[in-house]
Here is the input.
Amino acid sequence: MDAKELIARRVAREIHPGMLVNLGIGLPSLVANFVPANAGVFFQAENGVIGLGARPPEGMEDPNLTDAGGGFVTAVPGAASIDSAMSFGLIRGGHLDMTVLGGLQVDARGRLANWKVPGKMVPGMGGAMDLVTGAKSVVVAMQHSARGEPKIVAECSLPLTSLRRVNLIVTDLAVIIPTEDGLVLTETAPGISVDEVRAQTGAPLTLAPDLREMELA
Amino acid sequence: MDAKELIARRVAREIHPGMLVNLGIGLPSLVANFVPANAGVFFQAENGVIGLGARPPEGMEDPNLTDAGGGFVTAVPGAASIDSAMSFGLIRGGHLDMTVLGGLQVDARGRLANWKVPGKMVPGMGGAMDLVTGAKSVVVAMQHSARGEPKIVAECSLPLTSLRRVNLIVTDLAVIIPTEDGLVLTETAPGISVDEVRAQTGAPLTLAPDLREMELA
Amino acid sequence: MKRAIKPEAAAALIPDGSVLLIGGFMGVGSPHRLIDALVARGARGMTVVANDTAMPGHGIGKLVTAGVITRLVTSHIGLNPETQAKMIAGEIDVELVPQGSLVERIRAGGVGLGGILTPTGLGTEVEDDKPVIEVDGKRFLLEKPIKGDFALIAAHQADYVGNLAYSLTAHNFNPIMALAGATVIAEPDAIEPVGVIPPDAVKTPGVLVDHLIERAR
Amino acid sequence: MKRAIKPEAAAALIPDGSVLLIGGFMGVGSPHRLIDALVARGARGMTVVANDTAMPGHGIGKLVTAGVITRLVTSHIGLNPETQAKMIAGEIDVELVPQGSLVERIRAGGVGLGGILTPTGLGTEVEDDKPVIEVDGKRFLLEKPIKGDFALIAAHQADYVGNLAYSLTAHNFNPIMALAGATVIAEPDAIEPVGVIPPDAVKTPGVLVDHLIERAR
Here is the structure.
């Protein structure tokens, strides 16, 4: 199993029946593959559909039905079309149960940076700032480190996405819960030791009393 | 012709093809009767329809299609349903060409009072404050005086509906245009003299150079 | 998925002293069976936020008559003399809000905005002691967001996901109130199987709705 | 009633240096033939307000490539490296706005509100020097309204009144932008006879629309 699939499978376990969930472009979008179609979960794409379904069979694509990355999707029974004001009304208004987003950095206070690398790469925040500000639960799904550099750091050097403390960090090495008192390591990936996690983490980690191995969907 | 019909017929002449017009409850709602159905005018009821049509034949009423007073109406071809946020978005956003409202008082500065008689009658402002603030043109349609007391006064003694100067006052005696320099009498009703108008008006009136008799639709 | 419940069961969920956002405009688009059930259970001490109180014996007027309401936030009570009498007698504390500001304040509450900046009401009694904010040289009243413990709304069609569609002038405040109730109870004219309402016809996504009232027998 | 015009005729109405609100999300729901016509006429110096710039060779990406845009207000340019390159080279002045704030600022412009009070962006670079307003102990950024000289939008269905209906994720910014353009030009997939689109299916009332683009042959 590659790192991305592992992360997606672990995040999928956070998703429960009846939830409204927004999945970011890229890695987070893989999570849907590991949530059973009959689980009663509604996926929102911020571009305007609640009840996002799988990619359609070839020849059955609709140019007016895509995910936030522009890829073709389907609509599940009971889906609803919404415009961008309603879409972000739901997000900002606290009606979204969970958002799963990629990250460039998360710091010891659980603050996310994911929209800009000054002078290098400026994709823009898109919906990320609203999502992190408004969703009931914010899950960051990302590789633990990038080119050997930790992405979990004492203080973000990149511009923040929000002051809000995210609820959960899921990486290819670990599951970490940011708390008022710092980052708590709750799970390690199969075959990964606490020392290996610590070696690739740029912020102090407290060990959870029930620290355990990651279970996957 | 009674006073109300006269007022309604005169106001109808202000309404031109392609306009979006809101008519208040009561006297103003009569105006629609004197605008030809094929004039290309759309009437808005602030409770949620653009393209308000005449009262339906008996037995063809729809409980979900009423005017702002709760009376049954029809929808013309090309009508649109809107919710209250869109309805007042159009009003406040300057998308409404004209509103025709009743009045309790209008003063020398052209300011309207029409929602409260302290201690006596407090109907509430309903949509009036938004309509007077946002409509491109505000027409006040009212009897010239009430129980012998002028309704056009030097300064409103009743609570104001808006600081905005209304565009036109149409009464059973006269047509008056409020300007920066005060009220200008532009038309008198058939058989009414300038002196009679002045006698029933509590604010100074300037005579328009082209002062003429009211023409009716 | 939401199982439909009886009006009495819904009324039993609503404790005395709650803040209720109730849809409807002069009784059109109000949840009539739910209102009857509230009266039947002898509800007391409610704060009601609604466009109007219809007329005695109809819609929200029934709650006025039955003494259910102690506080009322509304735009218009002109067609219900009973509400005016109870206000003057001090039995109901009434806050009058311009209709456009009322719906926009509810929307702000529902979509997570801190309030609205509106020109409506400037220089009138509505301004009162409210903050005035200047933006680019123009003055606006800051009006606060409104949320409810419950939104009690009517709809034309529902499905068991909770998706709602509305009809003509029965939209009014309903789609906006659906955003702003902590618990949302919808009384539809009809409930359809999931997948029957086209996604483009849904105006309130089911994720906002907590309970459906079963159809009248 | 609006006679449909050719894309070239519409493009000729839009002077260089205009502020254009352009609908679409990654090219889905963008007015593609109107965009082609703007490129063909060699438009220059435009300020474009849009969710994103799609990708090179697609939708608004074509305006980037052709050098039509000098200023851009947008939420996301991550999938168009050309936009990023032109921004870094100083050829396009880019203002990045969180997606929810962007659509809500456009709505505020369209519905006559003085701005929005949002928690999104607080404590980030987006806060910059913007006013922070405290309401009941919570802090909000004051973000200003946005209006355009033109709104260039796409729709699924239109009628000759100008009523518009949208499809699935092609709603996005279109219904909101229709409120905020001084002149609104809509490019529908289909134009129906007046009276064919049900009032409840209309999401943009025709009174907002100035010009329709004729169907593709």
Q: What stands out?
A: The interface with chain D takes residues 20, 40, 42, 49-51, 75, 77-82, 85-86, 88-90, 92-95, 134 of chain B (CB under 8 Å).
